[in-house]
Amino acid sequence: MATQEVTIKCGSCKVPVEGPANPQDNDRFACPRCGRNDTLENIMSEAQESAMDQVESHIDSMLTGMARSSKMMSYKSGARHQKQRRFIVEMKM
Known about the structure:
The chain is α+β, with helices and mostly antiparallel strands.
């Protein structure tokens, strides 16, 4: 499985969050524009949820496309509502 380095951004401003260079779980990171902040541990958890949202959406799109091109297969989209997250990652898929 390939890995991808991503930048954690503020969910509202879409700018990278800032914090200490060698952070611990309890260190705080913040958006330099709006000031939204939290601990590294909480930010990482929410960023992982953001990544999972994107993966689920991508898989759903792939399955929808495969079903459209097949006469023998049908697929009903899960139609998930993308939750607004405080901290996000933008993945390339």
